[in-house]
Specification:
Blueprint (H helix, E strand, L loop, with lengths): L10 E2 L7 E3 L12 H15 L3 E2 L5 H21 L2 H6 L15 H17 L1 H35 L2 H5 L3 H29 L7 E6 L2 E6 H19 L2 H11 L2 H21 L13 H13 L10 H8 L7 H18 L2 H7 L5 H7 L14 H24 L5 H27 L36 H24 L6 H21 L9 H23 L6 E2 L6 E2 L1
Parallel strand pairs: 3-5
Antiparallel strand pairs: 1-2, 2-4, 4-5, 6-7
Helix pairs in contact: 2-7, 2-8, 2-9, 2-10, 4-7, 4-19, 5-7, 5-10, 5-19, 7-19, 8-16, 8-18, 9-10, 11-13, 13-19, 14-17, 14-19, 14-20, 16-18, 17-18, 17-20, 18-19
Length: 567
Amino acid sequence: MGANVETESAVEQVDTKGGLEVTEASNLEGNQPDSQTQSLVAECLPEVLERKPSVDKLPASVWIVAIAGAAERFAYYSLSAPLQNYIQNERGGSAAPGALGLGQQTATNLSNMFLLLQFVAPIPFAIVSDMRYGRQKTLMFSLGIYQCGSLILLLTSLPIALDRGAGLPGLITAMVLIAIGVAGVKATLPPFLVDQYNRPREAVIKVKGSKTHVADRALTIQFITNMFFWLTNLAALSSLASTWIEKEVDFWASYLMGFISLFVTVVLIYFWKRKLVSMDTQGSVLPLSLRALWCAARHRFSLEAASPDSQRDRHGRSVPWDFRIIDDLRQTLTVCRVLLFSAPFYLAYIQIMNNLISQAGQMRLGGIPNDTMQVWNPVACIVLGPVIQRGLFPLLRRSGVPFGPIVRISAACFIMGAAMAYAAGVQHMIYSRGPCYSRPLQCPEAAVREGASSQGTLGNDISVWVQMPVWFILAVAEILGFATISEIAYEQAPKGMKSVVQAVTQLTAGLAAVLGIALSPITKDPTLVILYSVIAGLTVVAAFPFWFYFRTLDHKKVDPDTNSQQA
């Protein structure tokens, strides 16, 4: 059970048509239950203690922010899904739509740089969010930058702009602005979402009529992160619409759809701002934490040496931080180590956005756009998400099988590695088929005979549907991994550093993008089998030391009020 509820617990009576809410005594300040309430609790308590913890009812503000976040993801995938083709292929005459014709290697490098900026830039947004402006204001500012970038991409993708050479400079400018905007959103929106569930206590007993259940905070936050992950994957289906529009109309139409969806996000957050929960900023906590960290760094990164007592005893001086700052730093660094260790997981994931799209383009497409294949990933997440959330997780809890956050992330890394191994196998099959073998689309025989297709080149003789399983395997890994990473980043982080820790998750993805850039020499034919094999190996190998090093964290809980870890 999320928290032990004992017979001497204090009771708070609430007006819910006969409902009763029982909370831990430590969370109430001097509220004493009356005799009638004590009698009700005494009657229901034995039954309650036998019940499994459950998910609490979510306030409306959680759903508002979740829907706004889903609209942002709808916009993001509408803008980003066509980018690989937009950059890689020329206008007309190719097996896939295109605009700039810069080739796969350049397209992949630009894609990785785009992702890298998204993953590195959250840090300054997180700092100003936690210290000064709060998550809501920082989120709105980020959305404004994001909207400007999407407008530039829309305007410079128009045929008249491409004809006048505005395509590439417009793309670079738009990618920078969009990446910065996305960075701010990623640093602030996930913690802002969980902020909306602001119940401070860990467990609540609710009695309504004859029904009793225990609402557990940890399970509720796990549900919120999984629910948001499911909604964002539903929104990611916009990639299906955008890639179809890109082929049937043009790229500018796809980008117009993204621009409109992003505007919906801005409207939702702005007009509901008074209904949303805004946590107080922590002011000087972060600067003091940085000073304490610098002090620890000068003493061989020993936080104990930076403590007030140690500084007074060793150096005869007082410091402006207290033991709470040191404890928060210790906890933050532990969480950051967990997040940074998941870099190989992110490296495998970002293949969805570039190389797997290009791989589909090397196969027989049967008339569908190659970048449409990526839509099967969110479809798989939508289908499998409820099965895992409502089926697998409860089954494991009832069976007593430990499946905490660290085990879930370890399993996600292993499954992600399996997906990359399958992708390597698909690439090997592509290279073993004609007409171009290890040089897909590049041999004279790839030219389509008249009447064979409306396109200009033909992939190797293997159906694109062979690639299908990779999207479903990736989906299982994402469901286990991404929602859990968000859960850890919020629940384990101290109150004054939640946005900073969330930004570190993006920094980890940035590290993965750097690794992707380092692998760019083999991101081309005929060495793509090696690329996928290396990524598969890194991801699988990382899963075992990750679990071994951090496994004890699955047996600790964090008090939501003090942020202290408890066994």
